[in-house]
Amino acid sequence: MNARTLGLLVGLASMKSLSAQGLEAALRTTGTDVVKAFEPQRAILQSSSAVLLKGRDEVAYGTVVSHDGWILTKASEIESIDSLVIIVDKTKYDDVRLVAMDAVWDVALLKIDAAGLVPVHYADSSDLPLGTWVVANGATSRTTRRLLPGIISAMTREVPAEGGAALGVVLEPGDGRLTVKEVRDDSGAEKAGVKMGDVLETINGTEIESIETLAKLFESAKAGDKVKLGIQRGNESLELEVELASKGELFGGAQEGNDRMSGSFSKRRSGFPRVIQHSIIANNASMGGPVLDLTGQCVGMNIARANRAETFAIPAEQLKELAERMIQETR
Q: Which domain-ending residue is among 205, 222, 246?
């Protein structure tokens, strides 16, 4: 037996050994036996999370935060409430109202006419050790929540806007002024009505004469901040309010290679003041639902699928404050 044949046999034996050590399907993360072990947490997701539908498509999940129909979700995934339907537990609600939005956290507050709902129970702290088990919504069969387990995979932290904050325009300098050469699709500038050919004169009252002046003003700006633009359009002077977005997400960059392998990641996945990170498999349409610990308490709300391995959630402390503030401001 020559060395080449011996090497091949050893390789085949090793592959067979590794195959024998593989987990059976029922024992994998999404397997029936594993999911069954988390049935108490699944029951809480059933009563305290919501499914948001447009037609037959799931567009997001929601977190029930009151007995009388207040629900939080990820704002940039729903865009509008036209034809939006919400299912809580097994009840379908067609009359959905978008009451408020928080641009900093990318959160929308929805209201349905309901009573006797079961809101999430907030954990006292979201500072969980690395490796702590957590669960969140996986798929749903319309009436039955399913869950996926995972672990806390990074320390709680801020996620700055990728590449800094941006208006969403390309500016052309010349003759001591900045002219809008391009307006990016889905940017705050486009939504505010900025048009190609507009001349940018001021931001929050400060005169803008160069790209350097603009960059200095944006040094401490974050995605979700709002600024007032003074622009000249022909003979008309206008003031427009623009919500800033992540420069990296508007103009692309280093993430694009990973994005092609990531599947359905979130439209906005950076620019958050504080997040917990976990390993639960997710996509953009599964954001907005609660993240539970093994006691069934809500340690956060999923807010962004960042890439193939990272999902971000708003920590319970900030989520509770956000829910209470947004509801109070609408009363």
A: 246
